[in-house]
Amino acid sequence: MSGRLGVGIIGAGVISQTYLENLTSFPDVDVVAIGDLLPERAQAKADEHGVASWGTPEDVLANPSVDLVVNLTIPQAHVEVSRQAIAAGKHVWTEKPTGLDRESTRALLDAADAAGVRFGAAPDTILGPGFQTAKRAIQDGVIGTPLFVQTAFQTQGPDLWHPEPAFLFAEGAGPLLDMGPYYFSALVSLLGPIAGVAAHGSRFRTERQIHAGPRAGETFPVEVPSTVQVLSTFAGGQSGTHLLSFDSALERHGIIEIHGTEGSLVLPDPNRFEGRIAFVKPLGVIRDGMSVDQEWIEIEQQGTVTGRGLGVLDMARAIAEDRPHVATGELGYHVLDVLLSAQDSASTGQYLEIDSTVAEVPLLPAGFDPFAAAL
């Protein structure tokens, strides 16, 4: 395939706005259709962003100008919508999680391989200049050999701002499966596959209230743990501690630190495409009267900042250039396996080994510019 890739979006909900803003600005892709279970919602997005065709999901799948389907449906529909897109001969990019169970997700990737189509999976924040710059710094040895990692995401919960938050507390979501993909995709991309996990989960409330939008005041059930703590071991020998919570009065987002033999590095929020990158070196020998203040050495971020949809663009160029794309379905599957194993560990109290693995995740090609026409 050469030239611009025709993109069809299925799902015109909240997340579609940022995808449309970015994808319609990239010269190497062409958003040609939007579909939703509520066609009028698809029409509103199509009118706002100048997309020629709108309708139902079936209309997008039947559109011959659509080469790649962007699946922005709710988690419970991800596998089925992706499966239908593969059956229609389309490449697929799906929002996270790739699926809700290992069996159907594995079958999905196998179907894509058999059909000869590409499969990509969110998050594509790992393609942002913040993460890419940090990854290059680690490869250049600024902190020596990575030893262990720490991550934290804690908030009062999306029910404070989301007009339809119930699905974020349902099976397939919660902080583990909703926010975990950002953190664990970043770590696997940096350090390689995870070998095992142990976890503890808590559900402090069985019911929560909507605080924003037309349904404010309504309640909904909490089906999954709203706070999860995970210990991880990597196949490369590193270890990690991870907090994911929708129950914290203290708002702390995007904490991700890599500690190595020659220093410690702070990375940008893995839910964002840019941010601070800085490291400290070891103090050395500490003697009486010495200051223990450490100098933070800032690393200048390299690359053009965009947003969600960057993974779709990378897929389009990778297809044309016959190279691997970065955020693959295999990466998405391994991260899902890790998160489901953490979920199982929280239920059983056991340390669980991870069966899946993933190949080394590549960096973007040097000089990757989303706004330069390359196809």
TrEMBL record:
Task: Write out the entry's keywords from A to Z.
Answer: NAD, Oxidoreductase
Q: Which residues form the GFO/IDH/MocA-like oxidoreductase domain?
A: 131-266
UniProt keyword annotation of Phosphoprotein present = no
Q: Give the organism, scientific name.
A: Microbacterium memoriense
> Looking at the keywords, is Oxidoreductase present?
yes
What name is this protein filed under? Gfo/Idh/MocA family oxidoreductase
Occurrences of domain Gfo/Idh/MocA-like oxidoreductase N-terminal (ranges)? 6-119
Q: Which InterPro entries match?
A: Gfo/Idh/MocA-like_OxRdtase_N, Gfo/Idh/MocA_oxidrdct_glycsds, GFO_IDH_MocA-like_dom, NAD(P)-bd_dom_sf
Q: Name one Pfam family in it.
A: GFO_IDH_MocA_C3
